[in-house]
């Protein structure tokens, strides 16, 4: 395994509090020492904490878990603006949700010490972390657990829309597991549930937009601030980076400007 490796897929491993999942399973507990041995970090924990990647329905009960994982041994410095998106729609022929990871990458220098070189002396630190983790679990019953914000969350997202999304996913799961002529009926029910969900989302978007416009009409200062923010987001700024770091970027750019001016 190289020092710039990314692993992704269905590991069927539930990591509990590490990723914001409800429980851990045997495979997840077995993989944790392997993560430490290879200095692998779970990007779900930092970029999509608590966001479900698998959902299905059994006996009218929704089953959800976080078993599709992105793992990497790339350090935080080398990953620029990473984003992990977990889609909310189950219309891809699978109970697993589509996931996408985007990031900028800064290649390591040749003389950079590989992450694995630091693993040999980390046993004491790991013991301290395990103690802290046990203390945190002791506090959980008294302070509660806050679930992660789902990737499809918007300002207009309401409980009514959430209920419609649950019905839609349930209908889709029933269609996938149906056989024969029943499959046609389940597909029809799914399409009805999907249309209702989309209708509620579009109506909520319109209400949110009208509310936003009303606020701008009443407060001119907020209107100008919003216009400036939109204009600033559309402007693109050119940047220059060098594999050897910021200092090398300054030197290279200075040499280039000196040669053309």
From TrEMBL:
- What are this entry's molecular-function GO terms? catalytic activity
Pfam families linked? Exo_endo_phos_2 (PF14529)
According to the lineage, what is the superkingdom? Eukaryota
User: What range(s) does the Endonuclease/exonuclease/phosphatase domain occupy?
Assistant: 4-98
The protein here is known as Endonuclease/exonuclease/phosphatase domain-containing protein
Q: What is the lineage of its organism?
A: Eukaryota, Fungi, Fungi incertae sedis, Mucoromycota, Mucoromycotina
């Amino acid at each position: 395994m190289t020092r710039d490796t990314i692993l992704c897929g269905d590991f069927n491993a539930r990591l509990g509090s590490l990723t914001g999942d409800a429980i851990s399973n045997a495979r997840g507990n077995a993989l944790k020492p392997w993560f430490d041995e290879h200095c692998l970090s779970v990007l779900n924990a930092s970029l999509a904490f608590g966001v479900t990647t698998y959902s299905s329905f059994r006996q009218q009960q929704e089953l959800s878990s976080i078993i599709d994982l992105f793992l990497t041994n790339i350090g935080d410095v080398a990953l620029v603006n990473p984003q992990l998106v977990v889609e909310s729609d189950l219309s891809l022929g699978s109970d697993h949700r589509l996931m996408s990871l985007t990031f900028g990458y800064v290649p390591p220098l040749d003389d950079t010490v590989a992450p694995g070189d630091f693993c040999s002396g980390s046993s004491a630190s790991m013991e301290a972390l395990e103690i802290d983790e046990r203390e945190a679990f002791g506090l959980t019953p008294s302070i509660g657990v806050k679930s992660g914000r789902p990737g499809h969350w918007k300002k207009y997202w309401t409980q009514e829309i959430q209920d419609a999304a649950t019905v839609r996913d349930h209908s889709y799961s029933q269609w996938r597991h149906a056989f024969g002529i029943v499959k046609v009926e389940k597909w029809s029910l799914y399409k009805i549930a999907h249309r209702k969900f989309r209708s509620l989302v579009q109506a909520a978007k319109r209400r949110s937009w009208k509310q936003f416009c009303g606020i701008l009409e009443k407060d001119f200062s907020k209107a100008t601030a919003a216009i400036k923010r939109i204009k600033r987001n559309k402007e693109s700024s050119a940047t220059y980076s060098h594999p050897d770091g910021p200092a090398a970027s300054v030197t290279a750019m200075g040499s280039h400007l000196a040669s053309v001016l």
